[in-house]
Amino acid sequence: MRVVSARMHRVRQQLVHEFRTSSHQKSYLEHLLIELHDADGRVGWGEVASPSGPYYCAETTDTCWQITSQYLLPALIGTDWEHPEQAVENWRRVRGNEFAKSGVDAAVWTLWAAAQGMSLSAALGGTRREVVAGVSLGIEPTIDDLLEQVRLHTDAGYPRVKLKIAPGWDVEPVQAVRKEFADLDLHVDANGAYSESTEHLAALTALDDYGLTMIEQPFAPRNLLGHARLQATIDTPICLDESVETVHDLETAIELGSLRVLNIKVSRMGGLTPARAAHDRAVQDGIKVWCGGMHEFGIGRAANVAISSLPGFSLPSDVSASAKYYARDIISPEVVADRGVVRVPTGAGLGHEVDTALIAEHSIESISF
Ligand code: OSB
Ligand code: MG
Question: Locate the Mandelate racemase/muconate lactonizing enzyme C-terminal domain: which residues (predicted)?
Fold first, then answer.
């Protein structure tokens, strides 16, 4: 196969509900949408879901634009390849920049799946026909606001809720939610906001009493030893997100005992190819996996649904319905969740139509290659 031309669009979408984490706050997102064309008129779509600022990871929308347009697309266009894993060899020399790579990698996979007449899920080796979605809820102004959000989403049938926490917003909100939702599959995500100070460790240890499914990324990304030390003293499984950008990070974390659960994000790991490799490696060592999200628009969301269909994804994923995030999504049909269950598309390629008119309407900037 050969990509003969490409386009990249910088698109802004308003969130239906403002989202706050320990590190940043957002009411809209700007993602890059990549379309790859082959000589037979097929199109492959991928999404770069980088946050605008460098608060989740080092990348930003601007760095992704730069790396994609200056290095990744020029390295791909015009080369011959048989399989997506071969196509991504073209940018093996580019260090880091996983969000930028992930959008091009996913576009390569959807183009290849379309050419094979296979769904993205089948192309990846997915076995599930439906995946279970949870929701991730941000830090709210008050506990009452948070309880209202939990009610809204559990009433809609989502079986798992993740709460963002930060020092000063941890035991109290968790206690309040647990009091009203005794049996809910509940977990927390700190986005690395805690240190190993006595005060912070006391709060994290206190969370051990609330039957949480996991505590996600309590410490800074590089602090694998700290995560191992904490895991040795609490029963609640630790889940890593930001700490694991490569399969090598995962192997180190497993060896150190820093995690029992892995949040696999297609974006954070540089695409479907490395995300699938991380899935295989985690399952081999009995690490539970689920798919995290970055508030993707429909194209990135469809890639997340496809990877979540691999057999090892045994916990609910952050692949909530399009409507949880956006008034109107850029794909049709939109992603829908029925009591938290999302059907895995069976149509060739992405399995959704891409609404190019809506993309054009919300596009800030486009570039052709
Ligand atoms: O840490 O998982 C995270 C969103 C932006 C940045 C980081 C994270 C998140 C989420 C949202 O939790 C997951 C989603 O619903 O897409
Ligand atoms: Mg996280």
Answer: 143-237
For residues 273 and 173, membership in a common domain is answered with: yes
Neighbouring residues of 318: CB distance < 8 A, sequence distance ≥ 6: 133, 134, 135, 136, 162, 290, 291, 292, 293, 304
Cβ proximity of 271 and 105 under 8 Å: yes
For ligand 1, say whether the CB of 47 is within 6 Å of any of its atoms: no
Q: ipTM score here?
A: 0.97
Q: Is 56 in the pocket of ligand 1 (CB under 6 A)?
A: yes
Q: How many angstroms separate the Cα of 322 from the Cα of each of 77, 133, 319, 345? A: 31, 12, 9, 15
Domain that holds residue 33: 3-117+355-368
Q: Ligand 2 centre and the CA of 82: distance in Å?
A: 34
Whether 138 and 200 share a structural domain: yes
Asked whether residue 135 falls in the same domain as residue 91, the answer is no
Same domain? For 162 and 304 the reply is yes
Q: And the tokens for 324? A: 């949880």
For 271-324, write each residue's pLDDT tens digit.
999 999 999 999 999 999 999 999 999 999 999 999 999 999 999 999 999 989
CATH number at residue 150: 3.20.20.120
Q: Do 143 and 243 fall within a single domain?
A: yes
Best residue among 131, 295, 320, 322 to mutate for probing ligand 1's pocket (most ligand atoms within 8 Å of CB) is 295
Mark whether 214 and 329 lie in a shared domain: yes
Question: What does the alpha-carbon distance between residue 234 and residue 216 come to, in Å, rounded to a whole number?
Answer: 13
The answer to whether residues 144 and 9 belong to one domain is: no
Q: Which numbered ligand comes closest to the C-alpha of 317?
A: 1
Predicted pLDDT at 24: 85
CB-ligand 1 contact for 292 (6 Å cutoff): yes
Count how many domains the chain has: 2
Smallest CA separation from ligand 1 atom 9, residue: 294
